[in-house]
Write a structure and sequence with these properties.
The chain has 13 helices and 19 strands. It is of the alpha/beta class. The structure holds N-(aminocarbonyl)-beta-alanine and zinc ion (2 copies).
């Protein structure tokens, strides 16, 4: 048996802040105690004086190797989970993609094959349903039984991932009956496609037009429709990557009615804006994602939503495409720029910066980045907290260290940083995953294959 002691730090969870020592046996947290009030011995001791001791981050929305727009997201499960660990995230939940005409099972098997034996940290899987029909609806309960309990549907991307309202309603009815959680990409895709065609016909081909055609009102309209469909089906709803204040208002209104509607936003919507999409020389392509970045004045509403719990989770929607050769596919036609931003390595630091800036309390930082995603997707309290019985996924975090985000120093397999040159206060010092040291003071000690698949229970907010 290996015993590890983390001593002298400030333990921060979603519920508490306390100066405590943390004892780990093998891969599990076994006890917390007041410093100096125990006689624990250990094989390995980490001195966390002056540091925070927090649960490893849970990033509930990543896309390693996602096929999109004729190319693939540039992080593999190996490179992406390594980068996650560098940033203090010890659990990711990625999306297995069902191809049109194929089964959910085939998509799930393909994603298991990509991830198995390659991950540095633990991982779960959601399923993207691109083809809702009698047969795929019948597959849902079996997948839930295997721990794949959430299903993403798209109101956007007609001809690719899109589901119409009838398909959405059927999937929601099945989720209501079986305990699944529908995750919704809420944008009115058919209307956006009309606006794309009209913009291109006017010669508006630059990346900034991506943000202009994907209107906030079309995110809000789709969010409203998704809420009503979920209500009719009697199903819970989790709206992914909320970026528009008008969409957030729809979620808040639903929650005020007591409906089981949940919302996620992402660091890019909190820290970046349409100003980035308008960067010259096609640099704006680096910031093309959907839902799109919004004008800066949407950010205050998102921060407020995180404080008031109208938004519960911050995930990255990590979906990196290199500028060279991938984002460049859309030179001369913004609609051909692969959608997605890198960020799995940056989330914990950016949200800590939000604590420094006064947007969030420390406990709320850990709630939205660790505990709430673990609860939302059936992993709590194994993940998302530090308590006896929890997996020893632990981050020692230096809250004072200055840290400049840059492609020159990051570990994501992508040739740019969406936050290039931005200095934040705070940096990960040590990372443990199930008791194994993955990272310590700038030295990477992890290995592909340590990370294990996590079968999940159903949503724990219901
Ligand atoms: O732009 C994005 N978000 N790319 C990833 C796919 C998705 O819709 O989440
Ligand atoms: Zn999406
Ligand atoms: Zn996504």
């Amino acid at each position: 048996m290996t015993r590890t002691l983390i001593s002298g730090g400030l333990v921060v969870t979603a519920a508490d802040e306390l100066h405590a020592d943390v004892l780990i046996e093998n891969g599990t947290v076994v006890a917390l105690a007041l410093p100096g009030r125990h006689h624990w011995t250990a094989d390995r001791v980490f001195d966390a004086s002056g540091k925070y001791v927090v649960p490893g981050g849970v990033d509930a929305h990543t896309h390693m190797e996602l096929p999109f727009g004729g190319t693939f997201a540039s992080d593999t499960f190996e490179t992406g989970t390594r980068a996650a660990a560098w940033g203090g995230t010890t659990t990711i939940i990625d999306f297995a993609v069902q191809s049109k005409g194929a089964s959910l099972r085939a998509g799930l098997d393909a994603w298991h094959a990509k991830a198995d034996g390659r991950c540095a940290v633990d991982y779960g899987l959601h399923v993207i349903m691109s083809d809702v029909n009698e047969s795929t609806l019948r597959e849902m309960p079996g997948l839930i039984g295997e721990g794949v309990t959430s299903f993403k549907l798209f109101m956007a991307y007609p001809g690719v991932f899109y589901s119409d309202d009838g398909q959405i309603l059927r999937a929601m009815q099945q989720a209501a009956d079986t305990g699944g959680l529908v995750m919704m990409h809420a944008e009115n895709g058919p209307a956006i496609d009309v606006l794309v065609e009209q913009a291109l016909a006017r010669g508006e081909t630059d990346p900034r037009h991506h943000g202009e055609v994907r209107k906030a009102l079309l995110e809000a309209e789709a969010t409203h429709r998704a809420v009503q469909l979920a209500r009719v089906a009697g199903a819970p709803l989790y709206v992914v990557h909320v970026s528009a204040r008008e969409a957030l208002a729809e979620i808040a209104a639903a929650r005020d009615l007591g409906l089981p509607v949940f919302g996620e936003t992402c660091p890019q919507y909190l820290f970046l804006s349409t100003d980035n999409l308008a960067e010259p020389d096609f640099e704006g392509a680096k910031y093309v994602c959907s839902t799109p970045l919004r004008p800066k004045d949407h950010q205050a509403a998102l921060w407020r939503g995180l404080r008031t719990d109208d938004l519960q989770v911050v995930s990255t929607d990590h979906c990196p495409f290199c500028f060279k050769g991938q984002k460049e596919l859309g030179r001369g036609d913004f609609s051909k720029i692969p959608n997605g931003l890198p960020g799995v390595e940056n989330r914990m630091d950016l949200l800590h910066q939000a604590v420094v800036d006064g947007h969030l309390t420390r406990r709320r930082w850990i709630d939205i980045a660790c505990a709430a995603p673990a609860r939302m997707f059936g992993l709590y309290p194994r993940k998302g907290t530090l308590a006896p019985g929890a997996d020893a996924d632990v981050v020692i975090y230096d809250p004072h260290a200055p840290h400049t985000l840059s492609a020159a120093t990051h570990h994501m397999n992508v040739d740019y940083s969406a936050y290039e040159g931005r200095t934040v206060t705070g940096r990960v010092e040590t990372v443990l995953s199930r008791g194994e040291v993955v990272l310590d003071r700038g030295q990477y000690l992890g290995r592909p294959g340590h990370g294990a698949f996590l079968p999940r229970s159903t949503c724990q907010y219901l």
